[in-house]
């Protein structure tokens, strides 16, 4: 079967672009193999500013791998990935929390504050911890946190970076309902300030209404690329 | 450089809060010194060259434990992934690890030196400045190499053995020079005759520095 080229071009008023435009993220003919096993092939898309792209698909479809390729953590077997923003404006929140368990919540943020040269004062970091509901655990070591608390601290790290391009890999894992609501608000805030979000979700039915675009990986290729409302109208999100 | 210092400072903070890594390194080194002291008859002194060899052997074993600890920190919760995405050069990460490792190695050696004087019966070095320069010179090469090879063994289940296997053969020239000059210092011989060994230490430091700066991005890069 010849490889299908799935082009997701967002031509909405908020983010007019094409393959030569000013998208924050460009994928051209991206394919990936694990050894001889094909994961997906010929995925192409352009993502403009202020858009939320939901990456859907069954377990093992390669959603997380595609996200890591988009973020620059994995080199694709074929194809090209271009990110508009530099590394200082890109954030990634994965399955792992990326926290140093031996450091306190505040020390973790202080470290990333230094790495990204954000120069946020301690008060700003404390405010951030308050925003994610960890104000009572500022001086507690991250290693003592529950999964949900660690995920909230991980979210604080991402919010500290204030990225233009945000990659989320099943970010609701371990979060209670209240924390999920907070996460969705932060995603909305990112979109409103012009940042783009690529969001891998295992609960498409719940999350598709919060997305502008959907890319579904199915059977080793992009099974659907297009607007979220059309995906939802087709009932795909509830499949 | 500033980010490298941040990484080193973060590592040291975690090590001192956790404590197990450097404590193990010190205990292992002290155990080595003590066991070697049993090879001498009561009242007998271990030759200066033997004492210097034991000092560097203890330092070398400690180095492996230190860099295992430092790189294990980046594996917990996959923090290395976040470091890879952060706007910090791979060389900055390597330098930060090397600085942290150097501080920890020097601290462990502060325990080893009195131990070899007490247990092995050697005289304390007269020329402390020269001794300090020797230790610093060898330690630079050891930590530069440790920081590079610690990243090579990153993620490997056989990390301990892998790091030991690849570090020890490469350390030999530095350790040999350290033992030769160290023996002269501990036996109060004039060290001028050993200046060539200092040249070797400098040369290997430079080679390891260059190699590490070039190679580190490849071993601490994307998957």
Share of helix of chain B, binned: over 70%
Sheet with the most strands, sense and barrel status of chain A: 6 strands, mixed
Q: Give the N-terminus to C-terminus distance of chain B in angstroms.
A: 25 Å
Largest interface, C-beta closer than 8 angstroms, per-chain residues: A-B, 31 and 23 residues
The largest β sheet of chain B comes out as: none
Q: Treating each run of at least 4 consecutive H or I residues as one helix, how many helices of chain B?
A: 8
Given helix and strand content, the structural type of chain B is mainly alpha
Residue-averaged pLDDT of chain A, rounded?
83
**Distance between the ends of chain A:** 25 Å
Strand order, main sheet of chain A: write it out.
6-7-8-4-9-10
What does this 3D model show about the protein?
- The complex is a heterodimer of chains A (239) and B (223).
- Chain A is an alpha/beta fold and 239 residues long.
- Chain A has seven helices and ten strands.
- In chain A, 30% of the residues lie in helices and 26% in strands.
- A six-stranded mixed beta sheet of chain A has the order 6-7-8-4-9-10, sandwiched between helices.
- The longest helix of chain A has 16 residues, at 177-192.
- Chain A is globular and about 45 Å long.
- Chain A starts with 5 loop residues before the first strand and ends in a 6-residue tail after the last helix.
- With 223 residues, chain B is an all-alpha fold.
- Chain B contains eight helices and no strands.
- The longest helix of chain B has 31 residues, at 90-120.
- The model of chain B has no long low-confidence stretch (mean pLDDT 85).
- The A-B interface holds A 68, 71-75, 86-88, 90-92, 94, 96-103, 107, 111-112, 114-117, 141, 150, 157 and B 2-3, 6, 10, 13-14, 17-18, 73, 76-79, 81-88, 222-223.
């Amino acid at each position: 079967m010849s490889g299908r080229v799935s082009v997701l071009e967002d031509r909405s008023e908020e983010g007019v672009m094409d393959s030569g435009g000013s998208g924050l993220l460009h994928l051209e003919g991206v394919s990936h193999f694990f050894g001889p096993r094909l994961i997906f092939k010929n995925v192409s898309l352009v993502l403009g500013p202020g858009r939320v792209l939901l990456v859907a698909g069954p377990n093992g479809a390669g959603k997380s791998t595609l996200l890591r390729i988009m973020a620059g953590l994995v080199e694709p077997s074929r194809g090209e990935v271009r990110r508009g923003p530099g590394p200082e404006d890109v954030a990634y929140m994965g399955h792992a929390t990326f926290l140093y368990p031996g450091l306190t919540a505040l020390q973790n943020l202080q470290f990333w504050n230094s790495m990204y040269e954000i120069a946020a004062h301690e008060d700003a970091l404390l405010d951030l911890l308050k925003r994610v509901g960890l104000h009572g655990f500022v001086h507690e070591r991250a290693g003592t946190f529950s999964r949900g608390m660690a995920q909230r601290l991980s979210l604080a790290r991402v919010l500290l970076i204030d990225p233009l391009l945000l990659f989320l890999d099943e970010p609701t894992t371990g979060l209670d309902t209240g924390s999920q609501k907070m996460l969705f608000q932060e995603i909305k805030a990112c979109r409103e300030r012009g940042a783009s979000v690529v969001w891998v979700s295992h609960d498409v039915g719940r999350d598709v209404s919060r997305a502008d675009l959907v890319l579904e990986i199915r059977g080793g290729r992009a099974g659907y690329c297009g607007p979220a409302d059309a995906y939802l109208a087709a009932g795909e999100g509830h499949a | 450089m500033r980010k490298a210092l941040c990484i080193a400072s973060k590592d040291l903070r975690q090590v001192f809060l956790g404590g197990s890594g450097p404590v193990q390194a010190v205990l292992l080194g002290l155990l080595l010194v003590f066991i070697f002291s049993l090879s001498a008859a009561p009242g007998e002194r271990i030759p200066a060259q033997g004492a210097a060899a034991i000092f560097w052997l203890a330092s070398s074993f400690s180095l492996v434990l230190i860099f295992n600890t430092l790189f294990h920190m980046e594996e917990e919760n996959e923090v290395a992934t976040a470091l890879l995405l952060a706007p910090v050069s791979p060389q900055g990460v390597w330098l930060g690890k090397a600085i942290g490792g150097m501080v920890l190695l020097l601290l462990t050696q502060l325990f080893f030196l009195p131990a070899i004087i007490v247990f092995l019966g050697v005289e304390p070095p007269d020329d402390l400045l020269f001794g300090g320069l020797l230790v610093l010179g060898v330690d630079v090469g050891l930590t530069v190499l440790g920081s590079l090879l610690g990243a090579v063994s990153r993620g490997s289940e056989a990390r301990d053995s892998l790091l030991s296997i690849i570090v020890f053969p490469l350390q030999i020239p530095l350790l040999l020079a350290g033992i030769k000059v160290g023996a002269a210092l501990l036996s109060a011989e004039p060290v001028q005759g050993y200046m060539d060994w200092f040249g070797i230490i400098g040369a290997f430091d430079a080679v390891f520095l260059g190699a590490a700066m070039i190679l580190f991005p490849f071993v601490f890069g994307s998957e």
